[in-house]
Amino acid sequence: MIKGFTFVELPVKNLESAIPFYRETLGLQVSYMDNVRKWCLFTIPGSDTGCALYQCTDSSICAEPNHSVHIVVQVENLETTIAALSAQGIETEPIRVHEGEHFLISGFLDPEGHVWRIWTPLACTS
To answer: Residue 43: in which H helix or E strand, if any?
Structure first.
C-alpha cells in the first residue's frame, strides 16, 4: 500500500525564523518556498524524502509541540553528527545502544520543540 514517505510536514510558529535551523544546522536544501501560504519544502541531499515547514495559524496546534511525533533520520556517523550539532549549540541526548536491533541512537529538539532522532547501524560507528 505505502510505497514510501515523500516528506514530513511540521508546524512552526514563525516560518522565516525556522528556516535557518533546517537549512544551515541540519544541511537540508530549500526546494520550494511559498511565501503566500507560508510553506517551505526542504530536500535531504541524496534522498527522495524531505521535510516541509508551514507557519501554523491554529493556536491549538501551535501552542505546544507534539512530543509524541518523532522525526527519525539515519546519519552516516552518529558521533560526528552529534559533534557538529554540539558545535552549533544543539544539546543532544546521550547515545543509546540498541544491540538487539543493531543500532545507536540519540536525539535533540529543534527550535520549535519537535523531537528529532538520529541513528546509525552499529557497523557504521567507527
So the answer is: strand 39-43
| C-alpha grid cell, residue 109 | 529538539
Cβ atoms of 34 and 78 closer than 8 Å: no
Q: How far apart are CA 24 and CA 5, in angstroms?
A: 23
Which residue has 535533540 as its cell numbers? 108
Which residue bears the cell 544491540? Answer: 99
**For residue 119, which amino acid is it?**
W
What are the tens digits of pLDDT across the range 24-60? 999 999 999 988 888 999 998 888 888 999 888 766 5
Q: 3-state DSSP call for residue 64?
A: coil
- Backbone φ and ψ of 74, nearest 5°: -85, 140
The CATH code belonging to domain 1-61 is: 3.10.180.10
Distance CA 32, CA 74 (A): 23
> Does an H or E element contain 24, and which?
none
Please state the domain extents for the chain. Answer: 1-61, 64-126
Which architecture, in CATH terms, is 64-126?
Roll (3.10)
